[in-house]
Amino acid sequence: MKAFELELRHIRYVVTAARFGSFRKASSRLGVRESTISRQVRNLEDGLGSSLFLRKRSGVSLTQAGSIFVEHAQAALNEIDRAVGDVGTIGRGRSGTVRVGLSSPLATGFLGELLIRFCRQHEAVQLEFVEGTHTQLFEDLERGNLDIAFMAAPLDTGSLATKRLWSEDVFVVLPESDALTKKSEIAWSDIRLKQFLVTEATPGRDIEAFVFRHLSSIGYSPRIQRDRVSSQTLMQLVAIGRGISIASQSVAETAFPGITYRRLEGCAVPFSAVWSTENDNPPFRRLLSLTSGQAATA
């Protein structure tokens, strides 16, 4: 077809004419002059080297070649219409994927409620979750591998945007046999000589930095033991007396055998959403809007 460039409109002319059996009716349906449809179909036939229609005074009917062409052309048009519809749905934020980074467990509270609301309002949107340290999540956001991350503040976000959303109390994780369980709240001075257990996995590094920052501020160098275990195994290590740990409120809402949580006196951690201002993913924008709205009423 060197002399004739096939366009989508030409395919629609043929399919519509075949459907109505008439160039005149196709003209009325498509809002295009009958002469234009007739001429373009003739050019298409010349380019294909085969007639698609038998032309009669009463209208047109498909040749064998025309029937084959229309069968494939109709399937192609259906796929194109489906593609346009799917892209439009994503563009309106009604479907698609939002990649969410986390530096702490979901549990309940602000983030849990936010995601429940979002999933109820946008059932066709898929949420994908990644856990990581602050550094890992920042890198993923900057590279476009994440749409949004929820993490503890304070934060040095650089070029990334941030919005403070909620705060959580901090808890000391103790074995039930520890004498400190008799206290309703615990001060940093009470645990200055304790051994702290953290995981190599998320959020172990962040907890380690948190402990170091607070104990060094009162003149102590913390004893920190890093173990390459899961958070659940870490709790079991605390339960058998290997040391203590630190947990956010969302973690403290989960019960573990042999474990007691006590609030850390005067200590709360603010949490923020972090994202790239260059991200124009529509379903992400809907999540961000819902996040801001919930924060305003929290």
Describe, in plain words, how this protein is organized in 3D.
This is LysR family transcriptional regulator. Helix 2 crosses helix 3 (34-48). The strands form 3 sheets. Strands 3, 4, 5, 6, 7, 10 and 11 form a 7-stranded mixed beta sheet that branches. Helices cover 44% and strands 25% of the residues. The chain has 298 residues and is of the alpha/beta class.
Short descriptors:
298 residues, alpha/beta, Arc Repressor Mutant, subunit A, D-Maltodextrin-Binding Protein, domain 2, 3 domains, seven-stranded mixed β-sheet, rod-shaped
Report, as a whole number of angstroms, the end-to-end distance: 64 Å
The name of the CATH topology of the largest domain is D-Maltodextrin-Binding Protein, domain 2
Structural class: alpha/beta
Number of strands: 11
Query: Low-confidence segments, ≥5 residues, pLDDT <50?
Result: none
Overall CATH class of the largest domain: Alpha Beta
